[in-house]
Amino acid sequence: MVFWKRNKNWEDEYDEYYAQDRRADPPRKPGRLRVVRHILLLGFMGTLFIGSLGLVSGPTMVEKLLSSLAMPVGIVWVLLILLVYFCLLTRQAWPAIAGFCCWLVLTVAGNQFVSRALLETLEAPYQDINIFELEPFETVVVLGGGTDSTRSGHSQLSSSGDRIAVAAQLYHAGLVRQLICSGTQTFRNSAKDAHPRDEAAQILIGVGVPQEAILRMEGANTSQEMANLKIWLEKSENTGRVGVISSAWHLPRVMRLAENNRLDVVPIPSNFHSIPITPSPDMIVPSAFNLMVTGKACREYLAGVVGR
Q1: Could you please report the per-residue DSSP string of 97-109?
Q2: 3-state class of 289 per DSSP?
Q3: Same domain for 64 and 115?
């Protein structure tokens, strides 16, 4: 076809040519088939991976992996992979980079190896302490954080409840004369929502510790608890050994604050997180529990930076 005709205006000629070209070769709609093709490809690769895992580790590990992927964190993790993949296909560089960074943070923070390695550095100084080989104490302080209250007002152990168990073990083993339960809840949902010190005391009494052997001390955080402990020791003129029970990963901060308050206390560890790693989907797929553990470690490191 001749592009240029002198008996027509060049603009009309161009419009006519363009219109004929569009009629001859109409534009394609965005290819849904390509999207479906890539989804099928990713699904095949995922199925191949899960099948290989089943052959190596057995059906139980496959069930755990699928359960992890069905959790909110696992769903977000998979969606970020898909986001990065399709952004790369469509050559959208910045969304791909942003999505990959989010995926990387989620993968690292929620990984079993990383979360436990972070807490292991905090717990390492207390790994070899056997609480039953410690010298007897006059007083042991049980820091708050190991209990919570139900809606009916019943006290129960929380994820850090090993603090209360260690205190009861020490008392029943005859290694401590009196216990001090500390902790103040700054925001209470109702009158039944007890303070941590009262929750811990109620549980200890329930496992056979006499009420007269339990004292209560206020403190909304560890810094206040150490300051209040100093005041109590000065008033009571206590001359015996004083121990402090807390989670092993929290003890470095406890001892730092105790030193700042010129307190001579013995650390008593509980609630270790750096236990031996067992085969689990957490090695690949991030989990909410590992994110929580990583958050605890980051909070402790941040407290060290700001001097709290």
Answers
A1: HHHHHHHHHHHHH
A2: helix
A3: yes
**pLDDT tens figures, 34-89:** 667 767 777 777 777 767 766 666 677 777 778 888 899 989 998 998 889 888 88
Q: Which residue has the higher pLDDT, 185 or 237?
A: 185
Distance, in Å, from the CA atom of 243 to the CA atom of 84, rounded to the nearest integer, reads: 52
Phi-psi region of 285 (alpha: psi -120 to 50; beta: other; left: phi over 0): beta
229 and 137 in a common domain? yes
Strands 147-149 and 155-157, sheet pairing: antiparallel
The residue with tokens 């004083």 is 242
Mean pLDDT of 280-302: 86
* Alpha-carbon distances, residue 303 vs 7, 41, 104, 245 (angstroms): 84, 47, 25, 19
Number of domains composing the chain: 2
pTM: predicted TM-score of the whole model, two decimal places: 0.78
How many Å apart are CA 153 and CA 184, to the nearest integer? 16
Separation between Cα atoms, residue 139 and residue 187, nearest integer Å: 29
Tokens of 154: 């019943």
User: What residue numbers bound the domain in which 154 lies?
Assistant: 129-271
Contacts of 81 by beta carbon, 8 Å cutoff, 6+ apart: 103
Q: Indicate the angle between helix axes 288-306 and 72-89, nearest 10 degrees.
A: 90
151 and 117, same structural domain?
Answer: no
CA 296 to chain centre: 6
